[in-house]
Design goal:
317 residues, alpha/beta, Nucleotidyltransferase, domain 5, 5-stranded mixed sheet, 10 strands, 19% strand, globular
Amino acid sequence: MKILAIESSCDETSVAIVEDGKNVLCNVVYTQIEFHKQYGGVVPEVASRHHIAKITYVIDAAMKEAGINYSNLDYIAVTSEPGLIGSLMVGVNAAKTIGLAYNIPVVMVNHIYGHIYANYLESDFAFPLIALVVSGGHTELVLMKEHFHFTILGETLDDAVGEAYDKIARVVNVGYPGGPVIDKMAKLGHPVYPLPHIKLSKDSYNFSFSGLKSAVINLYNKSKEKGEDLNYNDLAASFQDAVIDVLVSKTLKAAKEYQAKQVIIAGGVSANSGLRQKMKEEIEKLNIKFTVPSLKNCTDNAAMIGVAGYFQILCDK
């Protein structure tokens, strides 16, 4: 089964050809990140305009790289939600146009499912499975008992973890995107500042990062008022230590409660080196399989949509 996959939910225009849910024939990604850096974040109108300008070029490049034509395709999978509505519309309209022109069925795929299935490119799944989804817009713990069966155990009550990283990066003025920079700074510092590790109630799988974010901002403002110098590397290390402690502890709790055979991390923040290392250490102590995407598959890309689309098609039959 050959699937043409399209991803345009935020600021990456990506097209991939995926065969049988595992073999990626091509995965072309056009990123807009340099255009959004000047604004300190993604501007929806700017993003949708760039998708419009690049979508046909990226599709053509993918088809050429894979060495196939439309008659070789069985399905088209496209991200339909969640995301920036203008950006999503560009990808969905492109998919529907190609589907109509060449009589190819179109499958609408949830972006979060795509991030989860990016891990399938690394390793087959062992069920039951716990997925920690962490990105700029989402923080969720998901239980999977079989392919394409998702139960949300917990989610953020306020800020997503990636959003919190970007806001802290603005406080210390290190630019956008903030996550990779804060991660690098954390390696150079020590978690010496007392910041809250907000875990809510002991039975809750939900997350909350607004209090932690506010604590960092308050610490920064008070130091400025007193004329004291903050060590930004130590601040980054303290912030990241609080975040990782919460993410790992809740994931471990879920893995034990649901007797998981595998734990995966999904989403852009799965590229965070501190999170990857700590989660691996703790999960392997439980003799549970641990999987995290390769760095190129952590961020938005169409290959993950093609894999998710493959299993969605199989499970719908």
